Amino acid sequence: MPARPKNSWFNRQIVGALGALAVGAVACTGGTPYSAAPIVTTTTTPIATTTTTASTVLAVVPSTTPTTTTTAGRRPDGRHPARTPGATNPEVTQSSIHSTICVSGWTSTVRPPSSYTTSLKEQQLDSGYNIGGDTNPSDYEEDHFIPLELGGATRDPANLWPEPHDDIIAKPESSTTKDSEETSLKDAVCARTMTLVAAQSKIVADW
Q1: Angle formed by the axes of helices 196-206 and 175-190, to 10°?
Q2: Tens digit of each residue's pLDDT (9 = 90 or more) over 4-43
Q3: Which of 9, 107, 127, 159 is spaced 20 to 30 Å from 27 by Cα?
Q4: pTM attached to this predicted model
Q5: What is the DSSP letter of 140?
Q6: Beta strands in the chain (DSSP E)
Q7: For the chain, how many structural domains are there in total?
Q8: Rg, Å, the chain Cα set
């Protein structure tokens, strides 16, 4: 008689037990063997953020000495307060004046090119922004209502308008008179005898 392998009875018992466990597992899962679902991993991409610099349009500040307006809602100098209320450059603040407006030559670094201001002036004149129907661009200076030397917005149409020269309107309302006041206010701001906001508000009130 051939020799029986050692522990054969024990091996049969183990195989039987494993088979019973497998049958029980199938029964517990409704007859379908359990299969683990694959693990899915996702990668979250950060949302890119952008920062834009926009000018701040000022509310019209009433003058302490009321000025007259035409029936069309314009000032005697031709400015439409609704169309050109004034706007400021957010990069110019009280804390930055000595690195911006008080630096000699700084305005030339932010002044828009004449190609832009001339084109805008012609559009404004043709759309009714003129004195007595005069649409000749050479009779006007495309002016920053709040000047660059007081932190006015550089390209915003809310801060640019066709200001008539001396020979078009009386001097008290002309571009030459306004330029003189702008210089005086800028000197006061840089000397710290007037705040930047006060100077901006005075321009809006006076003009």
Answers
A1: 160
A2: 555 554 455 555 554 554 444 444 444 444 344 443 333 4
A3: 9
A4: 0.64
A5: E
A6: 56-57, 87-88, 140-144, 160-164
A7: 1
A8: 39
